[in-house]
Amino acid sequence: MGCLDEGRFNVEVENVVSIGCACKKSCVEEEANTASIEDAVKVLLLGLGEDVNREGLRKTPLRVAKALREGTRGYRQKVKDIVQGALFPEAGLDNRVGLAGGAGGLVIVRDLDLFSYCESCLLPFQVKCHVGYVPSGQRVVGLSKLSRVTDVFAKRLQEPQRLADEVCSALHQGIKPAGVAIILQCSHIHFRDIESVFLDSNHQGWTKILVSSGSGVFENKSADIWADFFSLLKFRGIDKEKIHFRGSSDQCWCSSQSSLSAKASSKIEVVNPAMVTAVASILKSLGEDPLRKELAGTPSRFVKWLMNFQNSNLDMRLNGFLCNGMNSSNTNGKVNLNDKKLCSELNLPFWSQCEHHLLPFHGVVHIGYLISEGFNPIGKSLLQSVVHFYGFKLQVQERLTRQIAETITPLLGGDVIVVVEASHTCMISRGIEKFGSNTATIATLGRFSTDTSARTMFLQSIPSDTSSAGGQ
Amino acid sequence: MGCLDEGRFNVEVENVVSIGCACKKSCVEEEANTASIEDAVKVLLLGLGEDVNREGLRKTPLRVAKALREGTRGYRQKVKDIVQGALFPEAGLDNRVGLAGGAGGLVIVRDLDLFSYCESCLLPFQVKCHVGYVPSGQRVVGLSKLSRVTDVFAKRLQEPQRLADEVCSALHQGIKPAGVAIILQCSHIHFRDIESVFLDSNHQGWTKILVSSGSGVFENKSADIWADFFSLLKFRGIDKEKIHFRGSSDQCWCSSQSSLSAKASSKIEVVNPAMVTAVASILKSLGEDPLRKELAGTPSRFVKWLMNFQNSNLDMRLNGFLCNGMNSSNTNGKVNLNDKKLCSELNLPFWSQCEHHLLPFHGVVHIGYLISEGFNPIGKSLLQSVVHFYGFKLQVQERLTRQIAETITPLLGGDVIVVVEASHTCMISRGIEKFGSNTATIATLGRFSTDTSARTMFLQSIPSDTSSAGGQ
Prior knowledge:
The structure is a homodimer of 472-residue chains.
Chain A: H1 6-14, H2 23-47, H3 55-58, H4 60-71, H5 79-84, E1 87-89, E2 98-99, E3 107-118, E4 124-134, E5 139-141, H6 143-154, E6 157-158, H7 160-175, E7 179-189, H8 194-199, E8 206-216, H9 224-233, H10 255-264, H11 273-285, H12 298-307, H13 315-327, E9 340-354, E10 359-372, H14 380-391, E11 394-395, H15 397-412, E12 416-424, H16 425-428, E13 438-445, H17 452-459
Helix pairs in contact in A: 1-7, 2-4, 2-11, 6-7, 11-12, 13-14, 14-15
């Protein structure tokens, strides 16, 4: 499977700044790299038509630089250091009797939550990682080291299969076991472009892929030992048949690539060359080679993604629509509250970009409003357009919620409640790594801001199973 | 609710070593504290009858010291530094129109996974934290800061209600919002003593508690705003009625306390005074006051817990039992494999203590074996005793698995499979924090080490819903 390529392992292990020595030199380098990323991020913000001095953006370049350095710290970590201090002698059984302990007894660590950065588009992706190995030579490795080593390779620009292979190879070289098995369940934001989001109301938020890698006794995919591994993993909902094998399609899972190829023939997009150069310089500052084959198109793909959130990108396109919407509105001032009924549109999807970290957040918007008997509810597509209108910007969730509420309230008669539920990539990447967490914000107008029972009636109508926009 | 006590907040915020300055001084202090904890841990290991120079324990004092320092880093962190760089101006609505954005629009971050250390017994406990606040003054806080601040207080010796109050108070002082609401779902290992584990076969592995704290508009428990908060949290399975209110029982949730009081009258336990002094010195090295009321009994409670895992603690008690078990065994050598049937005992609970970090791991053992037609299966209680026999030691999971298999195989005819599934506290505390992760190990003897279909038949009989011993 190629994952036992010693040459590559040694490169991974040796050609990195060693931790603890040359501290001063690496501190200076660290600062220079951070400053260079900051400069590049300013170029990106200017390209988005933003004012880099406005309060919410002033420290964004520094925040982005820190987050990217932290999120790619794996380039500066040594697997050898991690594993070698944690190999413990552990008796096995005579192999004529059986397999256990330090000789032949399968060890599995399940459900390690990680995130990595997609080398194709620079967005973070989530990984649920399952690691197994079969000890040999009467020694075992400290369990937490299996987690630490996977993290070293996750914290680089990656592609799922390569991540699995690199972790497998590194553990095999580090532990020298009878074999290593890796299964990764990866979730990547699925987003092609604004048009596809508008056209496809059942748009899936995530692309998922299942990859594996094996060495030694796991090298052969049909070896019996894999059956043991899967028997223990079936509890985690993993279907062996769904594992992506290298070469079986070899299409990139990242939607930024399919977007490019699909559109290449129909339309040539103009990408701001200064922004592309800025992203290439970021790659270099992270310790990557921007000319590496897999990274060649990454800067322009990232810029294309970012430009979806250009200031006022959608304004001209939607302004007319909104005006029409308002004119055709059925609202007609005050009505007796008892005559009103609750209308709601739940689970309107949105995409946005956190202005503090230039990282996506996405989720769903729930809108409730009271209308008088005899009047028709407003069309869902109009509400969805308003949601996208404010989503496709550099945003914070609190503002998005307020802006949606402010915009729709004159259309809907003034009694409006808006709930936004979102997963923030900035809460899983960077130092935070709160994988399951998600955020809810509320705006209440008119009667909803004073009448608890009206609020509660609406809030309890929000289904729990769609409340999270999480990827796993 | 007392959580707005400014005096205490200022103590929390000011009386800590500031980060980034006085670096050299704090480095020297750090090293002295770590060395002092190492010395104390050596005293504990000697008190357990262990050889501190054996390979698996040689670096345990250093590992424990590092883990404890890391796990209590909150004593050395400043809330002010975290929050004040991340307050952003954000428009609200005219409050005659409604509540949203930077004025009145409720913001909730759900499902933050944390861990903390129980001040009563020094074991880590898990926390699922939900934070809400109502912005005022046209400003909001960066969402990730809600997570960072909760973490500052979680990384101290705590008790659930105090943790909730301190986080609430710190956020209120830091953000100056209209109000802050905190809900914590806490899970603590429930373990009284070896006897209670032996006597109660339905022994629950976890004590759970739900606590809340509120300031400002949340200060009144029956305020309408709590209804909104709970409406959004109901999706997380939280039942408002089950929240523990201060004073309603005021019994400590930690089972180490109920153990002490229940036994005080019947039996006076002798606790090694050198070990108790060692634990008190650890508390001091972590920056705590060992004389603080809540900590007064902690050293002796921790030593009592630890002594359950004393080397050869159970040996004399169980050796006779095991010999009897062996003599009464029904196995009688080789039988035609086709005549054999699969017997299994699933979900035998165990408790153990990781010898690398002196932290508990516990979970379940599944045992399968083949017996000839006409013979009766071995009694469950014997197998459970063997499991406890090897669990109540300083252990690693791989060795536990092997030892159980080695011991029972002569009783069970030689065709034996043992699967151990466990949650390791050392995987959630320390720097790892892989909350959902858990570990499986296997030993196979006789036919199970060569016959894949026999293995698979057994492995697939393990129910998935009890496979994890996780606390949440």
